[in-house]
Amino acid sequence: MKQISILVIGILLFPALLKAQRNPGVVSYTFRDAFAKDVSGTLDTIKAMGIDNIEFSSLFGQTPEALKRMLDERGMFCTSYGVSYGDLVSKTDEVGKTARLLGASFVRVAWIPHDSTGFNEAVAKKAAEDFNRAGQVLKEQYGIQFCYHNHGYEFADFGNGTYFDYLMQATRPEWVGVELDILWVYFPGKDPVEILKKYGNRIYLMHLKDLKPGIARSPVGGTSGQNNVPLGQGQIDMRGVLKAAKKAKVRYQYIEDESDRVFRQVPESLKFLKELK
After folding, report:
1. A Pfam family this protein belongs to (predicted)?
2. Model pTM greater than 0.85?
3. Which residue among 38, 197, 216, 260 has its CA within the 20 to 30 Å range from the CA of 161?
């Protein structure tokens, strides 16, 4: 009976999950200020925009069970759960349990800690070891796929390629995937389309964001979130990226906008993606 019940639930959820794969989701960080004040109201606002799929980077003071109930009441989903590097390493089981309670299939980390001396071989080597260990636990004990989210510094030259290439070579594909942030590929001077072509089989998730025209790219440093513009209005070849992502069979794509104009810009990004289809 238990197996039949699980099968029935899977059949009922499949159309909604398929929709979540077709349509873009959003990263909770995009609406972080609103979530900090009113979780349920912010979910209503996101739902009204036509978005069902959320990648949570924080629980915003809620238990995972309570947050999952809020999502269920609105026909929404959490497909990915973002955690800190420290929590991934020292609280792997807690992270896995929370992700499952949220209904997420993925866990991601968006930053590898490094000091003022910069990202270097020793830091990259330790990160690869930590990712392999935690990724194995998440996959084998919780059925969760771990993904690393790039942030620009990984594309500095190293060996015959970049540190990103090294991380891909030093981690096990079955335990460590990628959430590709296309702005943080483009900004340091690389081409997101080429990365999608090269590592498409490792890229499960993608952050969609665009860079304001006129902002200079740089292999070092970063750029303000205020330089995020609606998709299709910036420097990135969004059509090329989306075409390459489709070929690579990226599972989920999330709009991420770090500006203070998200209530205007996210609908514009959605309009662009709809018209593009």
Report:
1. AP_endonuc_2
2. yes
3. 216
